[in-house]
Fold these 2 entries.
Entry 1:
Amino acid sequence: MSTDKILFDRVSKTFPVRATRRGAAGAVTALHEVTLGVRPGEFLVVVGPSDCGKSTLLDLLGGLTEPTGGQVLVDGRPVTGPGLDRGIVFQQYALLPWRTAAGNVAFGLEAKRVPRAERADLIDHHLDLVGLRGFADRYPHELSGGMKQRVAIARSLAYDPDVLLMDEPFAALDAQTRDSLQDELVRIWARTGKTIVFITHGIDEAVHLGQRVAVLTSRPGRIKEVIDIDLGDRDAVEDVRSTDAFRHHRHRIWTLLRDEVRAAQAAEGAAGSRTAHTGGAGGRTPVVAGADARRAAPAAAHTEEARVG
Amino acid sequence: MVDIAERPTRLAAPPAVPGAAADPAAPRLTARLFAVGGRVLHRTVAIAALAAIWEGAPRLGLVGRVFLPPLSEVLVAWWELLRSGQLAEHVGASLTRSLAGLGLAVLTAIPLGLLIGWYRPLAELLSPLLEVFRNTAALALLPVFVLILGLGETSKIALVLYACSWPILLNTIAGVKGVDPLLIRSARSMGLNHLRLFQKVILPAAVPTIFTGVRLAGAYSILVLVAAEMVGAKAGLGYLINYAQYNFAIPDMYSGIITISAIGLVVNQLLVALERRFSTWRVDVSAG
């Protein structure tokens, strides 16, 4: 235990569900007794079917919600709230639209109360690190999706957290941009030595990025298996995604997920016919839940709302 | 490190360079002049038509010349009022009142709106009261203001303050409540406390919406004031219009009306410009 940077110790999380016309109030178990350790400097990817509680896992780690059972430890100390030792990168960037790229990176530094005189160098350095030299004065609306996410990554790195938490950061980007950002993230991780916990529902992304990949079950989310990814020397091959090792890992995770996706769909179908009238509520979630919400299972809408509210 | 696909789309768009008029290519210059001229014509043709009808209809006997004198006679009367200094006096009196009322409304309604928008229990406590007052026409309260505050400046400024407060208050509340929850989550994840979250995220995000309220209030301040000045005032444009009508100085009455339109236009343009200045980021977000 002492070797783990982050430890989920039998963590459970249930959300209250408000009563609807056809169903009484109850609770949804998003996570059930999840135990998972993350080593210092490790790049850990968490994959799972839609709405399995991946994002909840990250919220707990970020201190944005509290577990209903068990505890989350960072450096052996329980997480009691948000802190600058953990930086979160959101799928929807969460950039302040009235601030330039540099201003957004400065935001984290202001939160950390870094003296004004030291900020400029840190901002330049981190915009440089994410390949945005020369874009410091651009506002978010002047940047493409990929560039916005680079700014968000720079902002999180600038205040120098030990742990970077990434919640499907590339899910809203086109495939080409996603590929190039994945490569850059690996490069940045190698350069900075941060511990990264990366949430995704993309299997390729998981294999490409992770040193280890934790596969979650469908709801209630539990750890199904943690897989070590060994792709050999990444720099030795031109296209790591086409190697045998990559395909092997990819297939392994796909097989693990297939059963869970089926189970999730079955549960969704049942829930959908039972509480179909709440479908309207699902329409409000995409901003928060992103790709996951496209499936807009009514039951899931409750969870997301509960999480946000 | 930046892909071609990642270039910001806005860079690709040709910048609207004002200096392009100095382009040595003469044919393009004339074309541009024609385009500008056409646009000016397009935007003034309706006003010009109104002026022509105003001038022509009384002269042709379509309407009574006594009640609607031709525009040229009104403009002569306006010029006389301006030269005699009467117009300046009335405009000064009106603007002082409406700016005082608007200023006080800005000073009170914005902080109150921020409090109500941010602090939910206060919103729940006050919202029934706000609904009642918001739906009570300001002018219906004019007699009440006069009874309580007398006929002097206080009641007029108070009425403007009252009328201007609502758009500002309601927009401020909406602005604070409408902040993207993701931005709040993101700021919270960095451990910002409530005060700093408010200062660094909520307030800047609400500024454009607040300014929309101020702009609306600017229009209200003049609308309400003129009506207030028709009751027991000794100066002001509302007084001028009312007084001129009683004394059958019909051209003077129209002069007052034209002046109010002009002031309303100018105030609105100023506030629109100010609003744009403070919300460039929002305008562009909605555009693309």
Note: Confidence is low (pLDDT under 50) at residues 1-23, 283-288 of chain B.
Entry 2:
Amino acid sequence: MAQLMLRQMQRKQSGTITAVKIGGELGRRIREMGLVPGTKITIQGRAPLYDPVALRVMGGTLTLRNNEADFIEVEIP
Amino acid sequence: MPTQAKIALAGNPNSGKTTLFNELTGSRQHVGNYPGVTVEKKEGYYLVDESRITIVDLPGTYSLTAYSVEEVVARDFLANEKPAAVINITDASNLERNLYLTCQFLELGIPLVIALNMIDVAKTRGIAIDHDKLSALLGVPVIPIIARSGKGTADLMRKAVAVAKEERNWQPIHISYGEDLDATLLEMQDKIEKENFLTEVYPARWVAMKYLEQDSQILEIGRRQNVSLSQELEAMEKTVSDHLLKTMETYPEAMIADHRYGFIKSILIQDVINQRFDEDRLYISDRIDKLVTNRFLGPLIMFGVLFGLYKFTFTFSEIPLGFMETFFTWLGGIVDRILPDGQLKSLFLSGIIDGVGGVLGFVPLIMFMFFGIAILEDSGYLARAAFMMDRIFRIFGLHGSSVMPFIVSGGIAGGCAVPGVLATRTLRSRKERLATLLTVSFMNCGAKVPVLALLTAVFFSENQARVLFLLTLLAWAVALLVAKFLRLTVLSGKSTPFVMELPPYRFPTFKGLLIHTWERTWQYIKKAGTVILGISILLWAMMTYPGLPATERDAFEQQRQNIVSSYAIEIAQAHQQTDNVDSSPAALEEQSKLIAIDGAQAEAALRFSLAGRIGTWLENITWLTGFDWRTNIALLGGFAAKEIIISTLGTAYSLGEVDPEETGFLRETLANNPLWNPAMGMALIAFIMFYTPCFATVICIVREAGSWKWGLFSMVFNTFFAFTLAALIYRLALFMGFGG
């Protein structure tokens, strides 16, 4: 078990979200797309310039920028 | 049930909402705007048992907060118009996330029917959904459908109509948000009910929840209606919010979202969803993505696709464009024959026919471009392009999705800003969209290209191709830098979150593509067309009136007669020698002298007209850039369409109207004119590239930005910017010795 920020995760790595440390519009956007504590995510890949990042969440694919991923804490098994 | 019952269609983007709407209403639909905003309002009719049901397609949203216009529009519609029922379309293969919006409908208490779309896709992914159980647990009907093939939609509508017929009151469900919030909510709800605070529109608990979420719109309405109660509620929110932050490091808004997902999970876990395969299993879509967003292949494929779209649009639209040109030439010919020479004929030929031709000239472009964009959008590729380009565009305060409008507008030289401006609709965030909208016209569109080709041929004849390529790069650089400037000044603000879905690749339906294309095209003709025609006539009038005074016209007539009489004898002699009088030396000489007189008269008339006077007056300013009155008039004419710069220059230099495709003669004239030195040439090129967009583009900016303010801004700002740049270039070039 290790805690790390979503930005530091590698391709194909999976984990479970433990915290989303932001409110306001960005926090709302992140949460309403299903990125809430308890959700399992897998890094699917990164854009050619390493940013944004694509994740698999609940059977779908989401993208977010690295500086947005910085607010998401993940627990890696 | 009244025959005009309203049923709203709501759901997430990419859930197949538009497909279902098209399937239900077919061609019986109507597109408008919600008052005051640029969000589209689509309405259509569905016929069942001889009653006509109005179906309103709400904008696709993930939530019902006050953060985006789409969400505000959707919930205002639900709250104010209280539709008889709402069909909530959900993607069965992505149910958990889709139910987040459903949750909020249930909390509003609105009569709901859930359409479980794409059950076929879910099935192939090994997802089985017990819809009866889901229905029992949520307390609303759940109907499985496949919107694409229409399967289950009749069933869905029967159920929706049945729900609408009940005409029952709204019955909000109560979801628990944890002890702290629940206690505060109850207290707030009590106060709200006691004073009937906003309850004629919203359920009391919902208002309380919005106070906890710090919903800007509800707070504003609340303060207006009852200041003291509103303040009381805000204070309560503050207390519980401080408490949450201290004890759990979280916000009420976050707690609510977390608990909503908790509620969804608690339902799905009761054997509603049966997942046969691993959730992370890669499907065809993911395999395609591996290739298409690959670090090296991805950008290559993307440029290939965008270039393909560009070629598709501008190559194929040439065919109908050719037909239209032929038609308008034919029409012009008829008018030319029927009407006597004079003002009326000129109005019809240069004002109306050219104006209508100008309006319709964009139609094939818009049709093909929207067809192409609809394919990219509906298939899911556009989201990938945005994903790959975002890092670069973000530097300039734009969004990954800005790439498409820039390319279409002339990012590959020769596009058109009108469809480019319309293409900004794929951008969902307002500030990024406005910044894109205002800078796409800096690209080298197809109308600027012949003008730039002429000027580069005059001044840089040796390496023209290279200069033209550099000008394309310059256009990109300026557009992006100006976008950055706008985002730092008039459009300043944080960038909109990029959190976005990459929907699975899908084959677009042909019906959807056609409806989409037709809608956009018709909107353009209806809304922009009339204004463009009006301005075109106005510009014609400016360049025609006031006409030359009678004395001057008589003077030109006199000159003509002198020429005719001076050649009369020679031509009569030629008549005796040959039948082909027109090719005799005397006749040819006479002809060319007459043409020269016509040219001189056209030049005099142009200078005498209002536009000519403005152009002459502008010399007071344009000495800074080295432009004379002839150039100024041509630039004024360029506001109608940039290629008109060439024909107006021709008239101003007594050459008659010059065809943009045949500029040899004009090129020589300019090259031999001492005023047209390289310094002035460089300044002029820069000015033409960046000054006000043509008015067709301006009208489209007004339509898309939702106010005349931005149209006016683009004209004034761009012209000022271009002029400053041109003046700097001219003065610097003179200083460096390019004035000779």
Note: The first strand of chain A starts at residue 2 and ends at 5.
